[in-house]
Amino acid sequence: MTYKTSISPIVKIFTTDNIHSIRKSFLTSTLTLSITLALTALVAPAYADENRASAATVDTSAPIAALSKLSSLDNVKQLKVTVPTIEYFNTSSGVPVAFVRAEALPIVDIDLRFNAGSARDGDIRADGFGIANMVATMLPQGTASLAEDDFTRAVETLGVNLDSSVYKDMFIVSLRSLSDDEHLLPAVELMTQMLTTPSFDTKILARNKARLLVGLQQQKQDPGSLASIAFNQALYGTHPYAHPTSGTLDTVPSITQKDLTEFQKRYLVAANASLAITGNLTLSQAKKMADSLTADLSIGKKAANLPEPKPLTKAQHIHIPFPSTQTTVLMGQLGEKRATDPTAQQQQTNFAVGNEVLAGGDFNARLMTEIRQNLGYTYGISGSMSPMLTRGPYQIGFATRNDKARAAIDASIEVINNTLDKGITGAEMQLTTDNLKNSFPMGFASNAGINGLLGMMNFYQLPDDYLSNYITRIDKVKLPAVNQTLRDTLQPDTFLIVTVGENNPWESTKDNKQKITRR
């Protein structure tokens, strides 16, 4: 197959050296201009003509002319969004495919996902935490026919991005290539090789384990990592989501080539896969390429459903001593799993709107306003839900001075309780829904953005109209439903709270005798 690309004659081809030169020149000129303007702004008043300055007296009580001409934001027309057209089909081996044709650039993005995250480590071996992560690390490090250096050289010669990554509930192999035959076909062949005939060389495995152990040792010096690991272990207990995706200092040394091969043969199979493709291909070309990519995958079996985690029934406070002037705080609870039916999706949309008002990352959020701006306890605080195949976590995180940790925690709980008791306002909801609708198109402003959405939808088996109905779900959001969903979802009385810092915030002090209670 052949792909034709039309490029305007005004477009120039730059070498790497030229690009660096242009970038350097641009940055230098920009910096010079910025400094010149700044110095001019600072120096000009000192040399201003006094008579001219007095003649140009400004009436400070008068409105600014430019601002008076601005139209009210209330009159801004409703944004019209054109959602990309998604084509769905199955490969000959039964892999479901979501495809969007995007002809603006001569690029193809491929996203092959497997139900094979680190939650499956324990299925290979009870103490095999880190196996999925090591498989993802080693897939691009050589195949049966190409040694590590040869494989890397082949990827770099084509100029493609070919990588693999792993999360708690999914394993992703991704490719970005130019869409012409000379680049795409050999790139797909390399992707197929790394999926079906990885070498898992024992010497490379030993090297990877040594490097990973150094990284895991360094995590002990990172309070954020310590807090996250402790939070997940306490929240999930014996559930597969409890252990770190990268493994632990105790489990990584025991990972063997046999573990990696067993994981690859058991989980990186057609019955356990979903595929997303975005780029400069016709539908027939996409079907042919999808068949070629998945033809050599073993059919295998679909992974079993993960068990449902059990929510905490009472508050739990964990403190990890750490020599630091600040205390890192993670608080939260068990959240929701990815919704697939319309009713549950609407409820998750309702919660997303309410949580954005309560714990969003911008300065309009209530936690940010109170804890950062009014009380000055932290530079930033935010919270979010992470739905997965089973119930993911809801987390709020921030860092504060050691002596302010308990006060900051209490104040945060008070903001949450006040929001649950009194609800958010109509004005806050309107601001949030407008923001969500107007920023929605940014999610598919690029091929990579589109393909990421396709991959997520396909992996979680979301309905075909999930994307096209997004604005409709936002429009259906009502204030009473938002506030009720917040109350039904968040239970601050049973929050898990993890602190990492020099002082234990739960030890009684004269200035700190409050208890976290529902008001």
Draw up the topology in text.
Blueprint: H1 16-47, H2 50-55, H3 65-68, E1 87-90, E2 96-101, E3 107-114, H4 121-124, H5 131-138, H6 148-158, E4 161-166, E5 171-178, H7 181-196, H8 202-219, H9 223-236, H10 257-267, E6 273-279, H11 283-294, E7 316-321, E8 326-334, H12 342-359, H13 366-374, E9 381-385, E10 393-401, H14 405-422, H15 426-439, H16 447-459, H17 470-475, H18 479-489, E11 496-501
Parallel strand pairs: 2-6, 7-11
Antiparallel strand pairs: 1-2, 3-5, 3-6, 4-5, 8-10, 8-11, 9-10
Helix pairs in contact: 5-10, 6-7, 7-11, 12-15, 12-18, 13-14, 14-18
What report would you give on this structure?
With 519 residues, the protein is of the alpha+beta class. The protein folds into two domains: 208 residues, Cytochrome Bc1 Complex, Chain A, domain 1 (2-Layer Sandwich); 186 residues, Cytochrome Bc1 Complex, Chain A, domain 1. Helices cover 43% and strands 14% of the residues. It is built from 18 helices and eleven strands. Helix 5 crosses helix 10, helix 7 packs parallel to helix 11 and helix 12 packs across helix 15. It is globular. The N terminus and C terminus are likely disordered.
Q: Give a short account of the largest sheet.
A: 6 strands, mixed
CATH topology label of the largest domain:
Cytochrome Bc1 Complex, Chain A, domain 1
Class from helix and strand fractions: alpha+beta
Q: What's the alpha carbon Rg, rounded to whole Å?
A: 27 Å
Unreliable segments (pLDDT under 50, ≥5 consecutive)? Answer: 1-73, 510-519
Q: What is the annotated CATH architecture of the largest domain?
A: 2-Layer Sandwich
Quaternary state, please? single chain
Strand order of the largest sheet: 1-2-6-3-5-4
CATH class categorisation of the largest domain:
Alpha Beta
